[in-house]
Amino acid sequence: MRPQVLFPLFTDVASLKGIGARYEKLIKKLCGEKVVNLLWHLPYSIIDRSYCPKIKQAQEGRIATLKVRITEHQPPKTRKQPYKVYAEDDSGEMVLNFFKVYKDSIEKNLPTGQERVISGKVERFNGLLQMTHPDYIVKPEEAEKIIGKEAVYPLTAGVSNKMLHKLITQALQRVQDYPEWLDTHFKQKENFMPFRKALEAAHNPQTIADTEPTSLAHRRLAYDELLANQLALALVRNKVKKQAGRAFSGDGRYRKQVLEELPFELTGAQQRVLGEIFADQKAPFRMLRLLQGDVGSGKTIVALLSMLNIVECGAQAAIMAPTEILAKQHYETIEPLCAKIGVKAALLTGRVKGRARQQLLAALEKGEIDILIGTHALFVDDVKFKDLGFVVVDEQHRFGVQQRLSLSGKGRDADVLVMTATPIPRTLVLTAYGDMEYSKIDEVPAGRKPVDTRVLPLSKLTDVVAGLKRKLEEGCRAYWVCPLVEESEKIDLAAAEERYETLKKIFGDKVGLVHGKMKESEKDAVMERFKRGELTLLVATTVIEVGVNVPEATIMIVEHAERFGLAQLHQLRGRIKRGFQASNCILMYGFPLSETSRARLDIMRRTEDGFEIAEKDLELRGGGEILGTRQSGFSLFKVADMTVHKDLLYTANKDAKMIVETDSQLKTPRGEALRILLYLFEQDDAVRTYLAG
Ligand code: ADP
Ligand code: MG
Known about the structure:
By secondary structure, the chain is an alpha/beta fold. It has 24 helices and 21 strands. Strand 18 (511-514), helix 18 and strand 19 (537-540) form a beta-alpha-beta unit. The N and C termini lie close together (9 Å). Bound molecules: adenosine-5'-diphosphate and magnesium ion.
């Protein structure tokens, strides 16, 4: 259960004073639902209100705080005019302008003949000093409250800095002095202040440097967040490791035969990775390993060989793909090889129905099927294995930590291998997959030709089409990718359809169209025709991103490539990288082209190394977003920033490992404090699932 000291922070923001229904909605959208979310909403700049000139000396354009006496009110004659209030000090006169205000409230706030301290941006108009809608109007005795430095927060339409400030101040008041969860020695070395002090400092910056992620206060908070993340993962990992697993060590008979059937030798990287996997399978613990390898690095054969090790031991294995197309593709690679060596492989997707499905399920339960290939349809309730020993998840970043674990629940302590085709920078591997062991295929099979990548403006479209025409006449096959921007799927679809129509006029009925709004079966049918060569040009929205294998396709044209992320472009280009023929990728961009987009396209032109691209992507975008959307499970940290806090991540990783080794149930005084930390950063699952009591 969440510690009581945190209750005030985990209430709805509606519980804050002065918020009201309208603000409640806006604040929830801006910061989050709970009071605690406000704590992580940090200022990015400051306004200095310590400039207190006389009216006559005030420099225009600056934020000034002035002590004035109100002399006269001049209500507007028409609605468009401002309500003017005149004021003076012993140096001269000025005017305050207000639009759309109530006479009553303004007379109350600025009574004629009285002194007020006002603060805001000053301008001069015909020599007369003006201030439009002062940020602050206070009585002289309250002046101290506003003079000085004011934190400036990221805002949203309808929420003023002043309002947000008030709410955040209340949130800060609900923070208590929690027991210290940092290692004393480390805290001293880093010169960190206590958590509460750090929060207060981050929200009350005195200089611009105080608002930067490199400031001591930010670093302390970033470390706390990273430690919570790493500790949660370390707890999962520790638990999994301790769970009894089965020791699989086959005699190699199937693997040997498959290797003989293959028209190629395994690369050094494939062999090394297989060694790591076999070692896990042999150990009497649950296996949870991530296998990373770029598109075309040969993960499928690695998956097959590791499944065969299990089959050699008489148990079953399953491989789960994110889409039907991919499942089918795995089936088409795996089944023929299995058939040759007398191993039974079957395909189960949502489309296998009725009698066929019943028969398949029965065979599975009897153990007549050795390797089952499918989508998440594999894991619905009525699918029963006789003895599932090993699950391969071809992930594409769709599953969270919890889901990954529940998958293996289908079998007695089944081992799990997660494969991902997107190269992930080391920092993100630690933050997102820190609960798993990790293998990397960092070598592509020899003899692959590099892709000739060109970057061209959209104004060259006619030339590109002419070049494409020649290539298609020579017998090539090509993808034409149209961007899909989430906000307006309809418009994008319309653009793709329009492009399809124009290309059809030029290339005739050899052009096909696939997009995300089509049914799986329709998509499959079009893909199938492209595969067979009945279609030679495939116009597509990004649906083809997910690993479709058409080795004959060697050309890819990406329209508005500047709208794609680097990871996406890399995945797309991977589609034409599989053949041994030369291939061409043309990235077409429109204007305006931002610096970042230009840099991205340039990287694409320079390198094909997925790991290098991933690191660059991280640099350009700074984290979380890197692999696409937030839903991908790589959501941004609230405070930590992977472009500046890498060092802290590595330390947090070591720290977390050490904690779990010495205090796996978090029972020591530091352990108790760490529980608070975990809850504070909403790692409730980790505490509930992996800690007793
Ligand atoms: P990935 O799933 O990693 O994107 P695949 O497993 O689909 O890659 O392999 C891509 C292609 O490379 C396939 O046609 C496969 O047969 C081939 N391949 C795999 N390993 C090797 C190798 N060691 N040498 C040559 N070709 C290979
Ligand atoms: Mg693959």
